[in-house]
Amino acid sequence: MVIATGGANVIEGSAPMTTPVIRENKGTALVNIKNEEEENYKIVKSPMVGTFYASSAPEKDPFVKVGDKVHKGQVLCIVEAMKLMNEIESEFDGEIVEICVNNEDVVEYGKPLFKIK
User: Fold this and answer.
1) Among the CATH numbers 1.10.3720.10, 2.40.50.100, 3.40.50.720, 1.20.190.50, which is that of 42-117?
2) How far apart are the two ends of the chain, measured CA to CA in Å?
3) Which residues pair with 75 in a beta bridge?
4) CB 112 within 8 Å of CB 44
5) Cα–Cα distance between 1 and 26 in angstroms, integer?
6) What's the predicted TM-score (pTM) here?
7) What is the mean pLDDT of the chain?
8) Residue 13 contacts by C-beta under 8 Å, 6 or more apart in sequence?
9) Are 40 and 117 in contact (CB under 8 A)?
10) pLDDT value for 33
11) Is 36 exposed, middle or buried, given 0-12, 13-18 or 19+ CB atoms closer than 10 A?
12) pLDDT category of residue 90 using cuts at 50, 70 and 90
């Protein structure tokens, strides 16, 4: 080991200092379970870039809420694109598990909007 005693303190060693890393596999099981659960979901994605609206007007109730049963063809939301209001319909029968965006969020093409079980 060399220690310089000049204007700057420099320490040089021959062996690198290491810190032991302990890894646990507990997180892996949770990730696998979550992935399996997500595989059972059907995702409704935005077909265009625009603004997401949960209801037809600000004072109206949302088209759907978490826990609602939906049917194929039922309107789930509106995506406004270039001043046109586009109704987004469910492609599946099932139950709304998650609404992935907030009202008035800007959404991209392919962004998940709803998870249906």
Assistant:
1) 2.40.50.100
2) 64
3) 89
4) yes
5) 41
6) 0.66
7) 81
8) 1
9) yes
10) 46
11) exposed
12) very high
